[in-house]
Amino acid sequence: MHIASSTFDRYCKMVEVRVVHALVDYMLVNLKRKIVRDQSDSRN
Predict the structure, then answer these.
(1) pLDDT beyond 70 at 44
(2) Where would I find the H helices in 1-44?
């Protein structure tokens, strides 16, 4: 799959804004799929 560099940049920004900020309170070693899934579901 090939995506334009501008699209890739937008995707990276979306990940940074939505995912990283949603999970900032969790220590990486404690981060589980369920936590990520729950955070994702709560944003939709």
Answers:
(1) no
(2) 5-14, 21-22, 33-43
Cα angle value 32/37/43 (rounded, 5°) = 135
pTM greater than 0.90 (yes/no): no
- Whether the pLDDT of residue 2 is over 80: the answer is yes
Within 10 angstroms of residue 12's Cβ, the number of other Cβ atoms is 10
SS3 2: coil
Position 23, amino acid: L
Residue 42 and residue 44: Cα distance in Å, rounded? 6
Identify the pLDDT of residue 8: 92
